[in-house]
Amino acid sequence: MALMGLWASCHQNNSQPVSSIAGLMDTEGKTHVRLSELDARSLIPLDSVVTGSDGSFIFALRLSEPSFYQLSTPQSDPLTLIVKPGDNITIEGKATELLWARIKGSDESVLLQQYLQQSRLRLDTAELLVKHLADHSTSANFKRLRDSIHQALEHLYQRHREYSLQFIHSHPGTLAGLIAINQPFGRRQVFDPMNDSTLFLAFDSSLRRNYPRSKHTLFFHQRLADLQKKEVIKKIRLENLLPGKPLPDFRIASLDEGKWLSPDQFKGIPFLLIFWSPVEGKQIQNLIAIQKELKKNRKDLEVLCIAFDFQRTRWQNAVNNAGLSNWNHGSDLKGTASPLYELFLPDHRPLPHYIVVGAEGNITLTTSKTAEILQALKKL
User: Fold this and answer.
1) Which domain holds residue 160?
2) Based on the domain organization, do 228 and 194 belong to the same domain?
3) N or C: at which end does the chain have fewer Cβ atoms within 10 angstroms?
4) With a threshold of 0.90, does the pTM exceed it?
5) DSSP label at 17?
């Protein structure tokens, strides 16, 4: 199958040099070896072969640019390679442990392998720690053990972050570094394009210098540009929510079917705008506390309450059970995918979130602290 792929690629474009990935698998009997391209967005299966009786295999590719490729067997996690046009890469190792195979003919692949091996060792240690905690869940010293393991896991994460940072600085603009800057540690993100913007911008510059036409470079650069654009939009939105700014206008479906709600209906009177999620019981308790304070101190203050939920029945039951039906309730039933979430909570601040709007339509207070809003309501 691999030879057929070689013939087809040669037939299509003879101007591109042939790149090969050949190997010798240490395995009992024959095994399947699969080759996939690790694209910027997905893993694309390309070819598969069955090893010879001696464990040998070969793939041939005609490439126009460097890219990431993965070798895999049914017995092992994949081995990621960086293949450039004209490369002749050889792999020797156990079919059950591809990550630890010997690589020749690609310095960047060896570099990437070293990084991934270190990552794997730390992740294996983290998995052992989590398993140890689970195995002792009924221990009398569980709380102390839990705190100790959480501390050890945090230490592992910080060590991996420091190692990754040093790796990226030592190998700027490499495709191996591109994996390091993007790869999470377990479920945790190691580097964030916004919080680590200096690192990302410097790496983007060196990557474009080394691989100016690579699709991986272009994807990385476009991703940073999109994130920067989102940050600018977020900053503008947050500035528009500062006290003294006019409340952004919107229109949303009411809990009363067939009706709509908008800040326009409160022109000339102060009102309280609340964003919340009916899923969380604690939020409902906060809203009940707000209602009690209003009854004591300001019975005529209007409340516009916007729910981020997907289920109308759950939303309606939460309102009725909490005794909040006298408020104005609206939702587009899109959850946090609602345009109002992006408009009023672009920084994903906690819910419930409160905005006090004066009679002239300007914001006088914005906060996610229930204690702060309760204090403010006393002074209205």
Assistant:
1) 113-238
2) yes
3) N
4) no
5) P
